[in-house]
Amino acid sequence: xNSKQILDREFLEIRAKILEVAAALDRIERAEGxxxxxxxxxxxxxxxxxxxxxxxxxxERELDAKIVSLxxxxxxxxxxxxxxxxxxxxxxxxxSISI
Length: 99
Fold this sequence. Notes:
disordered C terminus, 2 domains
């Protein structure tokens, strides 16, 4: 399958996901309170700008992207774990991660 065929197949789904992210960011911006200092917003901004870049990632930037992705996964997994039972005592254990 060539690039054009993949784009033809994936375009609507990609566009829908982008619109979903844009809507979520709009809700955050319109809501009361301030999140500009929240490190998660910086991660989102970095990921969006990296996704809009047409440049090839250097090995260092690729490693940075993998680290950020793993950190995001850990953050959201931790949050989901806490939300599942906020009264329980939670212990988080780091395991080795292959990059």
